[in-house]
Amino acid sequence: MKDTNKTEELKIRRAKKMMLWFGIISLSMSFAGITSGYVVSKERPDWLTDFEIPQAFFISLAVILLSSITVHFAKVAVQREQNSKGMALMVATLVLGIIFIYLQFLGFSQIIENGYYFTGSESTITTSFIYLVVLMHMAHIGAGLISLLVVIYNHYKLKYMEGKTLGIELAATFWHFVDILWIYLFLFFYFVR
Questions:
Q1: 76-86 pLDDT, tens digit each
Q2: Residue ranges per domain, the chain?
Q3: What is the pLDDT of residue 67?
Q4: HSE of 97, CA atoms in CB hemisphere, 13 A
Q5: What is the distance between the alpha carbons of residues 115 and 123, in angstroms, rounded to a whole number?
Q6: Which is more confidently placed, 161 or 6?
Q7: Is pLDDT larger for residue 152 or for residue 13?
Q8: N or C, where is the chain less crowded by C-beta within 10 Å?
Q9: Exposed (0-12), middle (13-18) or buried (19+): which is 159, by Cβ within 10 Å?
Q10: Where are the alpha helices (DSSP H) in the chain?
Q11: What CATH topology corresponds to 2-191?
Q12: pTM of the shown model
């Protein structure tokens, strides 16, 4: 009976990880499609070639990299049952995620201060693409923050004991994905103008 339960747990664990990876691959394809549209649209005569990435986006890159480090060590601490250290690192990751979103909105305000708008007569296809991509990414950061809140709650309730750490493993994997996605998007906007 005990072996059957372990086998069933392994199947569930594997299925949940595969579902996450299926979602990550689907999201990657969506962003690849949008960035491909950006590349194709660069040939338009009204494309902005002098657009500068806002300073807040540079800072957000550092913040998201730091959050990837904190979530990794949070997962390691929880797996080693270092509960208070794991909790502190998860909360730090959550705070860094919130700071990241704040910096994205600050970046939007810097874009507007430079005279570029999302809609209206002053808008351009260039800025519309940038707003769309950044807002889509922020929505996924929001999903990551929700998963972090769930993991923090579950950890507080001591649900990640005795090697049962699937929740934090999945949340950390998704968080790393949105971090890597922002690095890709940032570098894409930096080099493809």
A1: 999 999 999 99
A2: 2-191
A3: 97
A4: 29
A5: 9
A6: 161
A7: 152
A8: N
A9: middle
A10: 2-41, 55-79, 83-113, 125-156, 166-191
A11: Four Helix Bundle (Hemerythrin (Met), subunit A) (1.20.120)
A12: 0.90
